[in-house]
Every structure is written in C-alpha cells, then in structure tokens.
Amino acid sequence: MAQLELFSHPGPGVRYRAGLCSTAALGLLLLWALTYLPPLLVAYRSQGLWLKQSTYMEQPTVQFQYEVLLVAMTGADPGSFLAWSTFPAFNRLQEDQLRVPLISTREEDKNHDGKMDQLHFKLELPLQSTEQVLAVQLILTFSYQLHRMSTFVMQSMAFIQSSSPIPGSQLYVNGDLKLHQKQSLSHCGVDIRYNVSVINGTSPFASDYDLTNIIAAYQDRNVTTVLSDSNPVWLVGRAADVPFVINATIRFPVEVILYPLAPGFWEMIKFAWIQYCISCFPSASMVRLRISSTIVVVFLMIQTGFLLFMYARRSSFMPQSEEKPSRVHILILSSWRSGSSFVGQLFSQHPDVFYLMEPAWHVWVTMYQNSAKVLHMAVRDLVRSVFKCDMSVFDAYMPWKRNLSDLFQWAVSRALCSAPACDSFQRTDITNEMACKTLCGKYPFSKVEEACKTYSHIVLKEVRFFDLTVLYPLLTDLSLNLKIIHLVRDPRAVAKSREQSVKALARDNGIVLSTNGSKVEDSKYKVMQEICRSHVQIYETATQKPPRFLKDRYLMIRFEDLVQDPLSEIRDMYKFADLRLTPKLESWIYNITHGQGPGKKREAFKITSRDAVNVSQAWRNILSFHKIKKVQEVCKGAINMLGYKLLDSEKEQKDLSLDLVVPRRRNQFSWSSFNPKN
C-alpha cells in the first residue's frame, strides 16, 4: 500500500509515514488546503489579485488637420465681429462679417523620431483702418493617435481665447496640447469612437457653428485634449492698415496614459502571484512541516492552474480587435494631363468598382480664392466622406436640390450609369459617356450614395493633392483600407498636353499659384514647376524612410510603361487593388489603346479609342525644343527621379528611335521593392 511521508527529523533516520487514506494523511492535506487556498481566495475576492489599472508614457502622434474657425470681436455690439473658417457652409452664413485671413503653418519634429513635436501657427487678419480687435476665439483641430499600448484615434481640438478692453495688435500663445481623460483607455482592440470631426463642417445650420455648442459637445467626450499653460500675451498699438496677428506655438508633449487592464498575460500573472504569495506567507510561516517535493510540486501545479483559469475567465470579457474594413479604397493620385482619366476608366469599367472622377473639383470651384495648400484639408475631408459613401459632404458645395448630372464628370462613372443609380445599364456593361448623359442625368443625387454602398471597391481619381503627408490622416484612419496609385508622366508630355487645355486649366492654375481667384495661363511653366515638385515630394515621402502604415499601400505607375504594355501594367494595378481582370475588360482595353492617331484637341478630357504609344510620343513632334528646354529647367529633378532622359539637342528630340524612358524592372517603384540601405 502506498504511503505518504508525514514528517522527518534531521536526526539519524527518523521518519513518520502513513497510508494515503489514513486520518493523518487526510489531516495533512486539509492543513495544506487551509494554509494556501484561503489566501488565494482572500486576495481574489478583495479585488487585489488582478491589476485593475496601470499607466504608461507615450508621445502621441498629432497632426494638424488644417481646420480653423476664427471669431474676432471688433466691438461690444452683438453684430460687431469678423469671422472665417475653413468650412464653406460657415462662411456663407457670415455675409458682411466674413474676412479671409492669411494663414501659415509649420510642424516641427525636433528630435527626428518621426513624430511631430510642435506646431507653429500664424494667422494674419486684415483690418480696415477704423476696425479694432478686442477679443479673439480660435479653434484648431488635430488628429490625435496613440499606438503603444492603447490603440486610440480621435479628432481633437485646441481652443484659444483672449480678450482685452484695449484694442490689440498681436496675440502670442505658447502652450501644450494635453490629453484629458475622464476614463481609462482600453489596452486592446481599436478605439475610434471619437474619430469624428469636432465641427460639423457640412451643416447649413448656424447652431452647429456656435462656439458654446461646439465646446459643450466636445466636453461631453470622455477623452479630449486641452491647450494648457498657454500663457497668452496681448500686444497693443496696431498701426493703420496692419493686420491683427495671432502667433501660436502648440507643443505635443509625452503623456501619461491611464488604462484599466493589464496589457498582457505575464504582467497580470506577475501581479496576481505577488498578491497571492504575500497573502499566503503569514499563514504558511505558522506551519513548520517537512513535506516531500512531490507534494509541493502538486500544490504548485494546482495554484498555477487556478491562476490560469481565472485569467482565462477575465480575458473572455476583454474587447476584441476590430476587423479590417471590408471595402477597398483606392486613390489615384496624379496631375492634370497625365493620363489619369484613362487610368480612372480602367477602374471605372470594372463591375466591382464605384468610381468618381475628381470630386474635389467642387471644392476648388467653390473656394477658388484660396491656395491649393489651404484647400488641402477641405479636399481631404471630402475624399474621406466619399470613401465612406457619405455624400452629404456635397451639401456645402451644392446646396440646391440636385440630380446626378450636377456631379462633376458623373457620366464617366460606370457605377452611376448602371443599377442601382440608373436602370439603363447593367453592372457588367461597358458604358458610354454620351449614352449615359442622355439616359441617366435626371436621376436624383441620392442615388450616388445608394450606389456607393453596394460596391466592394471605391476608387477616386484626384489631381488636387500636392503633398503625401496631407493624406496621413486617411492612411491611419482605421475605418478605411486606403491604397494609393501614384500616376506620373514625362513632364514634357504633360506640358504639351496642357497647351491643348489652356483656358480650361486657367482657374486651377490660379489656385496652384495662390493668385486670390485670378485666372492664369502658365506661359512661364510655374505651375509645371509646382506639379514636378509635388511628384518628387510624393515619391520621396513614399520611398525614402516611409512610415510603417504606407507599407504595401503605395504603387507608382508611369504612363509610358502603361501604354507600352497595357495588360501587364493593368494586371499589376488590379492585383494591388485586389481586383481581377475580366475577358470583357481585356477586350475593351485593347480597343481603347489601339485606335488611330493621338486624338483630337476637342477630346482633351475624353476617353476615346487612340493609338496610346502615339499619344505618349506626340510631344516630340509638336513641342518646340525651346519649350522643351524650359520644361527641363523647371522639372529636371522630377525627370531624373521618375526615370526619364533629358534631351540635349533638337536632333535627339526628332530621333524617335531614341527611347527617353529608362527601363525598369517590374514594380521598381512599389513600396515593397524599396531597400532603405541602398
């Protein structure tokens, strides 16, 4: 019969044994149970076994959203104020009180860790000689993100307010954008409950722009940001015809983040084990028994199993990570006259794609007095809303009752010419712009949103982004699955093509060059210079030490490669976008790229059957060498970086056997092929 050693004496061979079922053995087991189990239960029931709350330090990722709302009081009367915002609907409500300021911003990464450390903001409000500023209220909005332990994304704001009985000339503000928590942040899953705009910029109602309502709604949040220690300095003595100036420096400091649950298994077990051992020690010290190692191991296994069981029970209540958005969002990023309409059609005709061509056209037409940089934020917000199939964003730019035909270039979208937007075509049909205009133009605008929600892929083509970093809030928006196709073309070919559309591009030229609404013909290639700079900036940002969230989400395509080998390049783009090339699309692509001639001047903005290779080389026969040299001077960096050869003489220009496109291996310009060690 098996026996259990109850006690041993350090003297010579004195041991006491008893059977496993004896009263002595049962008493020993009961004694051990009373020694170790009650402390475990006491520690657990007293709310002390598990780590309930903890903190860690992290510098947030903060980006200025370029959303501004300004109210400047010029007197004591209710109507004595000047106002302006980046929201067109708000500006329309102001009438005579609207005053457009000059704004400049600069974000600074002082320690070069990839996170912005502070924002320098300057606003110059023009005043008439009889006007004075007595008080200022200013709202700036930010994208605020935490990633280390708590994955938290929100749209936040900084509120600046200052006043004086003496009219001011300048206001200086220097403070920290501090996180304010009314509750702890969860350590797992993704928290995007506050990733909504602080200001409802699409609302036509004045109450939605009332500062008291905005601040009250903002304070109802459990997590906010507050501009603390701002130390405003109000300067007086403004000279006549000198603007009132606001200079603000807003720092983004390291924060102490409070979160409710232990971040992982080991920290929870570590904390629980310490609690248990401390509770267990006093009772264990009162019992001085010599027990065999086998019994000790058994009890340790029981204790460990109990802790694991309780951890599993607690983990079952933790929120799970959100799934990746099911829709795919593609942004075709390009410039005017670069073949982007053709690439847009390659996606538009696919039966799984909802496509819109340049929806931000409405922003630029409505706010043409502003610069492209100022309009970046409005364009980005419109693009975000369209990606989410929220077409109410167009209310700010088309406040009237509207049909499909009110949307810019709506008829080039197969999705708006087929069910459910229009009953005249099927989704699998290759639609024609003229037929669509005839049959579908009278359908209500609400069909746009209805149709958008039925597609798995949403593709937008835009030519109004000049900086890739402006899109970071969209790329880090966890509700979007955004990928970027960057389409480039030989700048000399772009310049030739732009000459066919001088009048059509004059207003856009003025916005690019910040002419306050004046139309400009780009005879000195200043717009071309800005376009080339933007392509270089976008490409360098995406390939030279890019942020992690850009991995596998950026693809650069050259128009010349596309027309030389259409099906191969299109398959690459479709693979990047998680689409499949159908036989009907293959046939249509062949026909559209193997027409006769380069196309007529009146077809500059239309997709017709042309000889695509002829189109890509047409500039060498039409553009004078003098103009070519001018373009090469302003776009030399882009020409070299994007893989084109410079021309040194008119003879080289006319020699069409000389290939000016540097060969590249497949996907050379994709993110995944980039090697930071090169």
Number of helices: 22
CATH topology (level 3) name of the largest domain:
Rossmann fold
Shape: globular
Average per-residue pLDDT, rounded, comes to 83
The helix-and-strand class reads alpha/beta
| The named CATH superfamily of the largest domain | P-loop containing nucleotide triphosphate hydrolases
Number of strands: 19
Strand content: 15-25%
Membrane topology: Single-pass type II membrane protein
Protein name: Sulfotransferase domain-containing protein
Subcellular location: Golgi apparatus membrane
Organism: Mauremys mutica (yellowpond turtle)
Key terms:
678 residues; 3 domains; five-stranded parallel beta sheet; alpha/beta; 34% helix; Rossmann fold; disordered C terminus; globular
Compile the SSE list and pairings.
Layout: E1 3-9, E2 14-19, H1 23-45, E3 54-58, E4 61-73, E5 81-85, H2 88-94, E6 102-108, E7 118-125, E8 133-146, E9 151-181, E10 190-191, H3 211-219, E11 223-228, E12 233-236, E13 244-251, E14 255-259, H4 265-285, H5 293-315, E15 328-333, H6 340-348, E16 353-357, H7 361-366, H8 372-387, H9 433-440, H10 446-452, E17 457-462, H11 472-475, E18 482-488, H12 491-498, H13 502-512, H14 526-543, E19 554-558, H15 559-564, H16 566-576, H17 583-593, H18 612-617, H19 619-622, H20 625-634, H21 636-641, H22 650-654
Helix pairs in contact: 1-4
How would you describe this protein?
There is one protein chain. The chain is an alpha/beta fold. Helix content is 34%, strand content 22%. It folds into three domains: 3-49 and 264-315, no CATH class; 56-259, no CATH class; 328-389 and 453-673, Rossmann fold. Strands 4, 5, 6, 7, 8, 9, 10, 11, 12 and 13 form a ten-stranded mixed beta sheet that branches. A hairpin with a 4-residue loop joins strand 8 and strand 9. The termini are far apart.
